[in-house]
């Protein structure tokens, strides 16, 4: 174990009780049932920290000030231990990733133009949000820091044929007149100056667009494909002035679903890094930490590696039977606690979304099958369920091949869980696409027989078993479809066992 292991932290606080002694005592009791393990912990003196964490009242019935100070210091050491462990790896996962450049944005709009021709649409229309960020690098809060506005600011991408007959993208913005300068100041990723159709406050913006030179060549109603994030009043406004409005689908939706090599590198970096942060943090855990304290330390560990967390679900035992939690995070870590952590962070605008379920490091791993069988029944059940979910994930991963249906991935995992006798306990779909959003289409549920997987699509595989009043297990990794070859893992390495997540 590294010098930043939990033992080192224990040792800082309790000099009189050597880590070796604690280890020996615990080791000799590892076959004992739950109560005996607890007694063992008490015998090693660990329970003193445990009660310190719980802030049990002192002899006078009040929390002792020095105890509070010790708790705070120990918590701080825990976070520092996680950060140091992660930084000590040298962060190799970050090496190949770099931000999306202007050429990448040009290439996206080029693919969009080709897809629009295939879908017989005259233009694609999108307002600031995730898809606008994807094609033009402006999110909704980057355009309107205050709140989403009622004034439409739209990006239109149209396909046209250049002199050599190749399909190219032509981009125009419909923009409030007084905001045109601000739109230019955004420095959107275009090699040429951007074109703006301005509308005055007392004009109808949609009629302004319809009458502009953008669609002057067309003798029929221009056919607009609108993004899924397009607000309803804008769609109706466009339809009212004579546009034919169709929803996102087909090849156009596939543009964002199919990841480029730069996107894959970022997804690999952020997802591998997030898994690594969980593993390094785990080594520093000690009894008495709460779910909230672990989440906060993990967030700061991710930040230390340049990854910005945007959700962090830490759940112990029965609190994990609700896949997305909902309890208040005050449950306390014990030796036999099954810890479920589902966490996501951003790097260069791309998301991670991973989950691991494990025992804390101070719960001794049985060293033989015999020792394992001697564990308490509730621990054995945890081990069995961990293995079933792992097998479910393995079977789902086999389905990540070109032309398999989205449904087949879910069904493969579900079959394993059902056959193992846990039918009805896998309460959500097996996964979803991932990119600039943690959840993107296509969605992997057992009803989605229509969507076929394609090379370059990246997905989560995250089966789970949730046992109400007991515990929950979920394993989540990211897979990239590569034709008929094995999918590529974008999370570095899968979990090995509950002691090696
Ligand atoms: C895209 O926007 C981000 C800010 O959100 C910025 O850091 C990045 O440089 C921009 N990329 C390009 C190619 O302009
Ligand atoms: C794009 O479309 C606008 C409006 O129709 C036109 O003025 C402009 O020349 C076009 N740009 C290119 C590069 O074709
Ligand atoms: C958290 O919820 C539990 C009940 O599940 C309650 O006993 C406890 O007081 C709550 N703690 C906080 C800090 O709200
Ligand atoms: C979750 O943890 C809290 C402590 O934070 C505990 O009181 C509660 O019983 C646990 N279980 C559920 C289902 O809320
Ligand atoms: C899917 O099937 C089509 C038609 O059979 C084939 O051309 C294509 O290469 C397949 N795609 C993948 C990713 O295997």
UniProtKB/TrEMBL annotation:
InterPro entries: Creatin/AminoP/Spt16_N, Creatinase/aminopeptidase-like, Pept_M24, Peptidase_M24B
Name this polypeptide is given: Peptidase M24 domain-containing protein
Start-end of Polar residues biased regions: 1-19
Region annotation (Disordered) ranges: 1-22
Family annotation (Gene3D superfamilies): Creatinase/methionine aminopeptidase superfamily (3.90.230.10), Creatinase/prolidase N-terminal domain (3.40.350.10)
Residues in Peptidase M24 domain copies: 266-482
Keywords annotated in UniProt: Membrane, Transmembrane, Transmembrane helix
Domain of life: Eukaryota
Organism: Penicillium steckii
UniProt key word Transmembrane helix: yes
Regions that span the bilayer: 31-50
